[in-house]
Amino acid sequence: MLLTILGLPPAFLLLSFITILCALYVVTNTNPVYSVLALILAFFSISAHYVLLNAQFLAVVNLIVYAGAIMVLFLFVLMLLNLNKESEPIVKMGWHIGAAVTAGLLLVTLAAALHKSSEQIMRNPAEDIGLVKNLGKVLFTDYLVPFELSGILFLAAMVGAVLLGKKQTNSKENNNYSETSSQ
Amino acid sequence: MNPDSVFNTLDISHYIYLSSVLFCIGLFGVLTRRNAIVLLMCIELMLNAVNLLFVAFSSYMGDSAGQLFVFFIMVVAAAEAAVGLAIIVMIYRNTRSTDVGLFDKLKG
Fold first, then answer.
1. Which of A20, A44, A104, B22 holds its CA 20 to 30 A away from the CA of B30?
2. Does a structural domain hold residue B78?
3. Which residue of B has its CA nearest to A24?
4. Mean pLDDT over residues A41-61, rounded?
5. How many Å lie between the alpha carbon of B108 and the closest alpha carbon of chain A?
């Protein structure tokens, strides 16, 4: 059996396999709706990785924020714009080869650079680090200012999204108004 | 601690390799796709690869700062997705397309 030969936990291998397969499906599929669904599955498997790593709070937040909110937003926009396989732009083969070479070179560089350094990392896992109690305590003491700033960022993003998404009737009215006022 | 947990059976280098592979797949998608929405999705994939590495380092070292950074990355990603999709919808309303090859009106 391959799983025992590699000497790795089967849960990790299975989850990694699902994650990479879904990621490849996302980038290679020409139908954007299928890409979104595969990406949701990839996020689910990444959440399972978080559970393996004792980060239970982030696993739940990842599911709620990414798989729940962001991907539903993507799916909603795709269906609103009625994008499907026919409307997908055609990309030349040369682009695929160039991109594959670039990504492969980056992967080789990263793997070579991190190959030896990972042995020096201290191993000091704590069981309760990923729970809400511990994370909340750190978030509201050491990271209080970034937390408040992210609230302001959310407000700005919300106002920006509403402004951008609104139908641009106001500007025409303003133009008409300025024309009539100049007359 | 449970002797079967990943911290005893797995080295952190496995998570480094997994995250690197995911990041490079996302990069490949960003370079090949022409649909602006799929491009944003590939960027989300790259962000998730980074998140996974943050969580892995944080859990292995027993330091919760990494997990809080993932929290803030998620906040920024949510804001980015909202504003990015609003921009794409606006562009689609004007050009009837989401092909990034057509978005070259700023070219001098």
1. A44
2. yes
3. B25
4. 93
5. 24
